[in-house]
Structure formats: structure tokens, C-alpha cells
Amino acid sequence: MSRTRIVVSLSLLGVLPLCLFGQGYMQDVGSGQVDWTKQVVQSTGIGAPNVNLPLPQQRAGAIRAAKLDALRTCLKRSGIT
Predict the structure, then answer these.
(1) What Rg value do the Cα atoms of the chain yield, rounded?
(2) Cα gap 42→35, rounded to integer Å
(3) pLDDT, tens digit, 9 for 90 and up, residues 3-20
(4) For every residue of 14-80, which 3-state class applies, written as one string?
(5) Angle CA(57)–CA(46)–CA(26) in degrees, nearest 5?
(6) Distance CA 72, CA 42 (A)
(7) Within 10 A of 65 (CB to CB), how many other CB atoms are there?
(8) Which pLDDT score is estimated for 66?
(9) What is the largest CA-CA distance in the chain?
(10) Across the strands, what pairs with 40?
(11) How many CB atoms lie within 10 A of CB 50?
């Protein structure tokens, strides 16, 4: 009986760190997140369309402006600028 308890206890001690540390560490930073486990930085940006352009170009321009805004935010949060 006690040998079974020891085996169960050791198996739980082996699985417990995986449950605690296997999920990763996410940190919210301004308008983005940093995943320290996967070493990934995510940021969001906003871009307004240019109403003087045709519709497909408006969308492309807004997406480009949003990407640049996200990159600028990411650089600002990292302390580079």
C-alpha cells in the first residue's frame, strides 16, 4: 500500500511542474502582448482609409497604416524610441 502511494506521489511531482510552467507566461503591454515562453510580441494598430482612392486601395492603405502603427507601438513599448 505504501509503495503505491510513493509511486503516485512521485508521478504527481513529475507532472506538476509541467502543468504550472507548460502554459507559458503572457504579459499585457499597452496595446499588445508579450509571450515570454514562445518569444513572440503581438501589437495592434489602427489605420484610416484614404477616401480619395478606389475601395481596394483604401483597404490596402488602411492595413498598411495599421501595421506601421503596430510596429511603432511595439518599438515604443520596447524602449527603442
Answers:
(1) 23
(2) 8
(3) 666 655 545 555 555 555
(4) HHHHHHHHCCCCEEEECCEEEECCCCEEEECCCCCCCCCCCHHHHHHHHHHHHHHHHHHHHHHHHCC
(5) 130
(6) 12
(7) 16
(8) 94
(9) 80
(10) 35
(11) 13
